[in-house]
Amino acid sequence: MEPRRRGCCGTGCMILGIVLLAPVLFIGWVVAVQTRVPERLGLRQPPEVRLLGGAPDREAAAALRAELEAAGFSAEGMNLAVLPVKGKDYSLAAAVFDASQGFHFGSSGGGDAMLDSLRRLGTGEAATQYHIGRVAVHYYDEEGRNLVSLTAPTDLIRSYASGQITRDAFLQGIEGQLDLKALFEEAMP
Amino acid sequence: MTRPRWVTLLVALVLVALFTGGCEFLELMLEESDQAQVEETANDWVEAKGLNPVNEDGSVDTDAAAKIAKRAATGSTGDPEEDAALNSDNVVRDVRQAEEWAEAAFRDRDTRYLDQAIALRPNDWAYRLDRGALNMHIHFAPDMEQVEKDFQVADSLLGPGRAERIQFAEKGIRQMLWVQEALAKKPDSGAAVLWKDARQCRAVFGRLALYQDMLADQTGRESDRQMAAQYRADLDQCRDQ
């Protein structure tokens, strides 16, 4: 028995279906990735759990915190941890600045508070003493949303702090993550 | 002469209102200023990385759109360390929560808080040491198999870094001395209890010797090495009675 052949109309419908389905599948995939569905289902371990799960260095965190507070950062709403990076001989200094918990940069920063916080965490005495190899800073807005996260290796931060590279070159070397929805809402009147 | 009093009162009220309102206004300005700075830096970063999908003339920058689509689809920068760093706020939050549970465990003398801390931070040795020590501290006859397992898992989670090993050893020494002291203080027990169960005794002195040796390895201090030798000698006392 000969297989039934698809007519022109059938083929057209199939192509149209694929064309319509592809964007839907892509958007679905993006939403799943962005909302961390594979991690929630246990299909894969989040990178921060895989690489930053070790015991935090409490002494180093206290020293870095003291440096930031001395520079005028408010103690309120500031959370800090120094975490060994698995497989590396250095640690990550991670700071969360949460405006919803009363955080403010104070007089520090000179109008460039986020980059200033990277610079202070990456080039202070404590950074050298406690082998900080990378810094990450997270800013939470008054609604408690993570508006911006930035990270840079301390080598790059030192180059910027010593004037070897420009601000633009520094920004190019930084990696970041933005809450586009929150930023868009902020920008709207 | 009542009128000037009213005027004074009114002026005072206005001043108080201005002061309190002014403070709130100043605070609001400060917060807005912080957020504005952050947003400006974010915008500059987007431009520097070539991630703005709209050109100055309003046309679509396809390169930028492709970069955004790739990042959105993979959810990754391509470097696991950077990905971990960008999500490290989750770790900071978990560490804080686990610390609160650990404090509650010692305050309420309840190891169930530490079970929660370990579930949240399974690769953090601190809470294993805490649970082992607290179990020995609060129970007359603790489940020594569980205690020893906690200590062994803690050992296996320890990294090679000098600072981490020193912190581990110092915490371990503090806790074992705390356990030893607590046992000595129990009425009609003291050393007798410690020695009654040879496993408890071996755990205390064996661990103290191990941590002092670890400390000596990192600091090079002869006094730490001597302490380790002393604790090893104390192990001879550990016999079931």
TL;DR?
Chain A is built from 9 helices and 5 strands. With 189 residues, chain A is of the alpha+beta class. Chain B is built from 11 helices and no strands.
Oligomer: heterodimer
Question: Could you name the ranges of chain B where pLDDT drops below 50 across 5 or more consecutive residues?
Answer: 13-32
**Roughly what percent helix of chain A?**
40-55%
The DSSP helix count of chain B reads: 11
The largest interface is: A-B, 72 and 51 residues
Structure description:
The complex is a heterodimer of chains A (189) and B (241). In chain A, 47% of the residues lie in helices and 19% in strands. With 189 residues, chain A is an alpha+beta fold. Chain A has 2 domains: 8-40; 53-187. A 5-stranded mixed sheet of chain A has the order 1-2-3-4-5. In chain A, helix 5 packs across helix 7 and helix 7 (154-161) runs antiparallel to helix 8. With 241 residues, chain B is mainly α. Chain B folds into 2 domains: 2-84, no CATH class; 122-237. Chain B has 11 helices and no strands. Chain B has helices spanning 2-48, 62-74, 80-86, 88-108, 112-120, 125-138, 144-157, 162-185, 191-196, 198-219, 222-234. Mean pLDDT of chain B is 82; it is low at 13-32. At the A-B interface, helix 1, helix 3, helix 4, strand 1 and strand 2 of A face helix 1, helix 2, helix 3, helix 4 and helix 8 of B.
Topology:
The complex is a heterodimer of chains A (189) and B (241).
Chain A: H1 8-34, H2 37-40, H3 47-52, H4 58-70, E1 78-84, E2 91-98, H5 113-123, H6 125-129, E3 132-140, E4 146-153, H7 154-161, H8 167-173, E5 175-178, H9 180-187
Parallel strand pairs in A: 2-3
Antiparallel strand pairs in A: 1-2, 3-4, 4-5
Chain B: H1 2-48, H2 62-74, H3 80-86, H4 88-108, H5 112-120, H6 125-138, H7 144-157, H8 162-185, H9 191-196, H10 198-219, H11 222-234
Helix pairs in contact in B: 4-5, 5-6, 6-7, 6-8, 8-10, 10-11
